[in-house]
Design goal:
The complex is a heterodimer. Chain A is mostly beta strands. Helix content of chain A is 0%, strand content 47%.
């Protein structure tokens, strides 16, 4: 199985802050890396697919980069609705695996 | 807009089989090239992929659950189903159905989730 790790596991930030979350895969997954946002009691929502692509409707303050084993999700200016848990997910091989999550809370 | 909705019992006894159905509306389960997937999340924990069924045929399962899992499609009802046998308390979780596809096979559409508790 491809293991996916995330750092940090949690962070505290203020509205307007630039936030960066890192995801690392245990082997080369090219750009088969997706990012999701999950709020309590809700299903995850895709933010980034294919490492750097923004789905329609996702605000442009979200961006993704990376390839191979190292990836980054950046929120350029944190908004109140962005306080949530973020997961990365590799889709390069079966089984599909998710990172353990990064919780972003209010400073 | 595609919508997915899980249904099934919220309580299952240990050693029994968990059965859930995901009803798809707003589009046909046979349209396009997509995987119809199940994912679960124990309370306060992360996401675990269970498996998927390709609408052109064929299934993939998480090896950690492989021998206990079956995912199938019911095209006449535009539904897909999950069966997980010999459940234990460790299978207690919120179960999500989702559509997986597109470049990089991401989960674009999700159901709201169905909490299943395994307890006697």
């Amino acid at each position: 199985d491809i293991q996916v790790t995330q750092s940090p596991s949690s962070l505290s930030a203020s509205v307007g802050d630039r936030v960066t979350i890192t995801c690392r895969a245990s082997q080369d997954i090219s750009q088969y890396l997706n990012w999701y946002q999950q709020k309590p009691g809700k299903a995850p929502k895709v933010l980034i697919y294919g490492a750097s692509n923004l789905p329609s409707g996702v605000p442009s303050r979200f961006s993704g980069s990376g390839s191979g084993t190292d990836f980054t999700l950046t929120i350029s200016s944190l908004q109140p609705e962005d306080f949530a848990t973020y997961y990365c997910q590799q889709s390069s091989s079966i089984p599909v695996t998710f990172g353990p999550g990064t919780t972003v809370d209010i400073k | 807009q595609l919508q997915l909705q899980e249904s099934g019992p919220g309580l299952v006894k240990p050693s029994q089989t968990l059965s859930l159905t995901c009803t798809v509306s707003g589009g046909s389960i046979l349209s396009g090239s997509f995987y119809w997937s199940w994912i679960r999340q124990p309370a306060g924990k992360g996401l675990e992929w269970i498996g998927r069924f390709y609408n052109s045929g064929g299934a993939h399962y998480n090896p950690s659950l492989n021998s206990r899992v079956t995912i199938s499609l019911d095209t006449s009802r535009n539904q897909f189903s999950l069966r997980l046998s010999s459940v234990t308390a460790a299978d207690t979780a919120v179960y999500f159905c989702a559509r997986e596809g597109g470049y990089s096979n991401y989960f674009e559409y999700w159901g709201q989730g169905n909490l299943v508790t395994v307890s006697s």
